[in-house]
Amino acid sequence: MINFNNEKEIMNSYCIPFTPINGGNVLTGQDVDAVLFAKRLTRNSSFVAIVIDGVTNIAGSAFRRCINLRSIELSEDLVNIGEGAFFYCGNLQSIELPEDLVSISTYVFMECRNLRSIELPKSLVSIGNYAFAFCASLQSVFFKGNSKTTPPTIGVGAFSNINSDCEFYVPNDSYIKPLLNSNSGINEDNIIIGKP
């Protein structure tokens, strides 16, 4: 079983064997009912993770190398995703980030090679180094906000080695410089002000 502390933080699980309950297709932590893993019927089948409301922090490496993780629904209460939390989740295709998320740490989605699109909330203050590096299928990144929204700090290589045609939709021109200065090799022509 995955163990959680009482501070509503998902701790490191490395996706090693879970103890199934309720007939084998739902798994949960013992201390806090924080994560339900559904559709994980066999060792090689893909599954969906649901982070239950009330969880405010996902610790570093919490879902690291969950190569069969296809989709995740996050708690609306989540404010921080720790270092490498979803590192090398190679089959992760979709994730919806909560509106109050403040920080995406270093390496969080690195090598999530099937992640195609991501919407970043306007509450976001920082994106860590190499946070989305090697997301080879990434086609679009949407920064939510308006003409007065301040861009987050964008770490070194945050979007390095992604699809060269990936488009970045930003709410205003103040996002252009941080994206270009992130050493991610982003083409300025791929930065679009406004919605698609």
Describe the protein:
With 196 residues, this protein is mainly β. The chain has two domains: 1-88, no CATH class; 116-196, no CATH class. Helices cover 3% and strands 23% of the residues. It contains one helix and 15 strands, in the order E-E-E-E-E-E-E-E-E-E-E-E-E-E-H-E. It has one helix at 176-180; strands spanning 9-10, 26-27, 35-38, 47-51, 57-58, 69-73, 80-81, 94-96, 103-104, 117-120, 126-127, 140-143, 153-154, 167-170, 191-193. The strands form three sheets. A six-stranded parallel sheet has the order 1-5-7-9-11-13, with no helix packed on it. The chain has a five-stranded mixed sheet with strand order 2-3-4-6-8, with no helix packed on it. It has a four-stranded parallel sheet with strand order 10-12-14-15, with no helix packed on it. Strand 14, helix 1 (176-180) and strand 15 form a beta-alpha-beta unit. It is globular, with a radius of gyration of 17 Å. The N and C termini lie far apart (43 Å). Residues 1-43 have low confidence and may be disordered.
Briefly say what this structure is.
With 196 residues, the chain is mainly beta. The protein contains 1 helix and 15 strands, in the order ββββββββββββββαβ.
Give the averaged pLDDT, no decimals.
78
Helix content: under 10%
Number of helices: 1
Low-confidence stretches: 1-43
The total strand number stands at: 15
Number of domains: 2
Strand proportion: 15-25%
Order of neighbouring strands in the sheet with most strands: 1-5-7-9-11-13
Approximate shape: globular
What structural category arises from helix and sheet content?
Answer: mainly beta
Rg over alpha carbons: 17 Å
Distance between the termini: 43 Å
